[in-house]
Write a structure and sequence with these properties.
Blueprint: H1 2-47, H2 56-62, H3 76-90, H4 96-111, H5 118-121, H6 126-147, H7 161-196, H8 200-232, E1 243-244, H9 248-261, E2 268-272, H10 286-295, E3 302-307, H11 313-322, E4 325-330, H12 342-355, E5 360-363, E6 368-372, E7 378-382
Parallel strand pairs: 1-2, 2-3, 3-4
Antiparallel strand pairs: 5-6, 6-7
Helix pairs in contact: 1-3, 1-4, 3-7, 6-7
């Protein structure tokens, strides 16, 4: 009899336990429907807020009565009232309420490979999470109030709402703008740490890994792309991004970069622009660029695709060609920077018209150069 009584009691307890599980599941499912409705309702209400709608702000501060015929909010007068209330109190941080309501559902149904029990979402260090979200809302509202200039927001009480404006007004005098910005940025990060249970060290490490991976992956993809491009465009050439002058810092950079990219371009490219002092290099930096290429074992044709010429342009172009330039493109008369004289421009145009199209050039003397053309003809220039 004793054993039978114990078995009956155990069976009864199991039935009660199953009933409680079903009841809890029913309550949770019902709450999810309510939560989804509230999240979508508030999102639409906030997104379609209009300051012309009669809402909480106008009723409380002006005593106006809502006229349903004047409501433009997509979810009616209730939406106008609610959005007006939330944006007045919290400013842009009112949208955090939408996150609270919808993000757990999005994460559970769409983003997680393994469904997260909803009981886990609402448990854990709940007290710390709530405290963290309070810090996020207060700090975020205050930061909006600090950084947004008055008058640029269409919200009832500016971007930070009443909360942000009140808190910022308390701290702006003793801490100044910079001190207040540092304080509330720190409390915002602290709030995010507590509410989301994130480790900033882990995030930074992950970001570093991602950057390294994406850099390597991008390099591989670029190499594959260039290979395909060369195969498709057999007569095409790939021009290196132009080296912007041969200043000391530029030379240091290209000495490091050129050995890594030399197999991925056909034409070495230099730009000549006037320096900060307005002066131009007499040989358009081609001599220094050619020496740089030789120092890193890069044997490529040289194009000067942006030539800003000062002084004697014909002499500078001839020296650039003698130093290895295969092609020179003038920046034109409308380019910013020091302008070529009209006399220099005229001489350069005459030089181009007379000597363009040569296949080789050599120096005969200090002032004489010889141009050779594809048909075997030669021209002598005294510059």
């Amino acid at each position: 009899m004793v054993k039978k009584s114990q078995a009956t009691k155990k069976s009864s307890n199991q039935a009660v336990s199953v009933s409680r599980i079903r009841l809890n599941k029913l309550i949770l499912d019902s709450w999810l429907i309510v939560q989804g409705f509230l999240g979508i309702f508030i999102l639409i209400a906030l997104s379609t807020f209009s300051p012309r709608d009669s809402g909480w702000n106008t009723q409380v501060f002006s005593g106006d009565v809502i006229n349903n015929n004047q409501i433009s909010n997509a979810v009616g007068s209730w939406g106008a009232y609610l959005s007006d209330f939330l944006l007045t109190i919290f400013g842009y941080m009112a949208y955090i309420l939408v996150y609270w309501l919808l993000w757990p559902l999005v994460r559970h149904f769409f983003l997680s490979r393994h469904k997260i029990p909803f009981s886990d979402i609402y448990t854990g260090l709940l007290g710390l999470k709530v405290f963290g979200w309070v810090l996020v809302v207060l700090s975020g509202s205050t930061l909006f109030a600090l950084v947004m200039e008055p008058g640029i927001s269409f919200l009832p009480q500016e971007g930070g709402g009443l909360i942000g404006s009140r808190i910022s007004s308390v701290f702006i005098i003793p801490l100044s703008f910079i001190g207040s910005l540092l304080l509330f940025t720190s409390t915002l990060l602290l709030g995010l740490t507590l509410s989301l249970e994130v480790s900033w060290v882990a995030i930074i490490s992950k970001a570093q890994e991602l950057l390294l991976f994406s850099g390597s992956s991008l390099g591989d993809k670029a190499s594959d792309f260039l290979s395909v491009l060369k195969e498709k465009q057999k007569n095409g050439v790939i021009v290196m991004a132009g080296a912007a002058g041969m200043f000391p810092e530029n030379i240091k950079y290209w000495k490091s970069a050129l050995p890594k990219i030399k197999d991925h371009f056909d034409i070495a490219n230099i730009h000549h622009i006037s320096g900060p002092d307005g002066k131009c290099d007499k040989e358009l930096w081609v001599d220094e660029f050619a020496a740089l290429l030789k120092s890193v074992d890069v044997n490529k044709p040289i194009w000067l695709t942006e030539a800003m010429t000062c002084g004697a342009p014909v002499k500078a172009w001839v020296k650039a060609f003698l130093n290895g330039a295969e092609l020179i493109i003038d920046v034109g008369v409308n380019a910013p920077g020091k302008k070529m004289s009209k006399k220099g421009r005229k001489k350069l145009n005459e030089f181009i018209a007379e000597y363009d199209g040569f296949t080789s050039i050599k120096s005969i003397s200090k002032k004489l150069v010889e141009f050779t053309y594809s048909d075997g003809s030669k021209k002598i220039l005294d510059f």
